[in-house]
Write a structure and sequence with these properties.
40% of the residues lie in helices and 21% in strands. By secondary structure, it is an alpha/beta fold. It folds into three domains: 79 residues, Arc Repressor Mutant, subunit A; 99 residues, D-Maltodextrin-Binding Protein, domain 2 (3-Layer(aba) Sandwich), CATH 3.40.190.10; 106 residues, D-Maltodextrin-Binding Protein, domain 2 (3-Layer(aba) Sandwich). The strands form three sheets. Strands 3, 4, 5, 6, 9, 10, 11 and 12 form an eight-stranded mixed sheet that branches. Strands 1-2 form a two-stranded antiparallel sheet. Strands 7-8 form a two-stranded parallel ribbon. A hairpin with a 4-residue loop joins strand 1 and strand 2.
Length: 311
């Protein structure tokens, strides 16, 4: 039976949210900077007070119960509201000061963030960015639910309830093993992919969908092949270096400082295929000029670091 006098604490809700996102008690405790026994006790107290089992835990897995899934959006909203109160009380009166939770897709984060974070610190010294790296669908859901404030992702997306500000365009390149016939080639046609073992990222990565779409446009069959696939762009690059195939990547991923010596690069003929990156916001925030200013900083970094073209 629930205790109707019980009022969950912010920490208890934060523990529940983190466990639900991580599905792992130890990593959740590490993220929150608390001991695992303290985390378990906080969750148990929350469940007891609510009279609900929120999480199922076994020796092998952690699952969120149906009741937990129903409660999770409200827990997130409550924590977000309390954090906002704290930020305002601490003098965070504007968007570009205080904590700002920024989502970034995995195929952009490793190449954009090393330049972006110092640029944000210089341009907005009162801003405290918090980075969430995740796939598009989960970033969109996080944006809708208030878990993140904005996201840097490829456009377009079919998501409802969010809008995007186009920022910059970057071309695609083809990574091949060093010594491959296409290594160093320029102005290649996407049709050459028909004869290559093409490595794709896992489902959920927008770069996978963009690669599949490119192949379809030139009538190159891609799905149903039995080549290797990777969960991250870093793994795909390692597979290419190991001679397991070729892979389409954004131009930002082929800079000299990040290139594996076992990798060769081929460039596409103009108009080269590529992607447009945008700043995604909840619909209600679309007209905020502060977001546009932040977008200009992101675009400038992309121009300077990997020669992206502003939209």
């Amino acid at each position: 039976m629930p205790d109707h006098r019980f009022v969950p604490s912010v920490m208890q809700l934060r523990v529940f949210i983190t466990v639900a996102e991580r599905l792992h008690f130890r990593s959740a405790a590490e993220e929150l900077g608390m001991s695992q026994p303290s985390l378990s006790q906080a969750l148990a107290t929350l469940e007891e007070g609510l009279g609900l089992r929120l999480v199922e835990r076994s020796t092998r897995s952690v699952l969120v119960t149906p009741a937990g899934r129903r409660l999770l959006p409200f827990a997130r909203a409550a924590v977000t509201a309390v954090d906002a109160v704290s930020d305002v009380a601490a003098g965070s009166g504007g968007l570009l000061s205080g904590t700002l939770r920024i989502g970034v897709i995995p195929t952009a984060a490793p190449y954009l963030l090393p330049g972006l974070l110092p640029a944000l610190a210089e341009r907005f010294p009162d801003l405290k960015p918090r980075i969430v790296e995740d796939q598009t669908a989960r970033l969109v859901e996080g944006l809708r639910s208030g878990v993140i404030d904005l996201a840097i992702m490829a456009v377009p997306t079919d998501a409802s309830g969010v809008v995007s500000i186009p920022l910059y365009q970057e071309k695609f390149a083809l990574l091949v093993p060093a010594g491959h016939d296409l290594a160093g080639a320029v102005s290649i046609s996407p049709e050459v992919l028909a004869d290559q073992p093409l490595l794709l990222l896992d489902e959920g990565h927008c770069l996978r969908e963009q690669t599949v779409d490119l192949c379809r446009r030139v009538s190159v069959p891609v799905l149903g092949r039995e080549e290797s696939r990777a969960a991250s762009l870093t793994t795909a690059v390692q597979c290419v270096a190991g001679g397991l195939g070729v892979s389409i990547v954004p131009q930002s991923a082929v800079g000299p400082e990040s290139r594996d010596p076992g990798i060769g690069v081929a460039t596409f003929a103009e108009p080269a295929p590529g992607r447009t990156m945008g700043l995604f916001l909840r619909t209600a925030s679309a007209d905020d000029e502060a977001y546009a200013e932040l977008g200009r900083v992101v675009t400038k970094v992309a121009q300077e670091v990997f020669d992206a073209q502003p939209v």
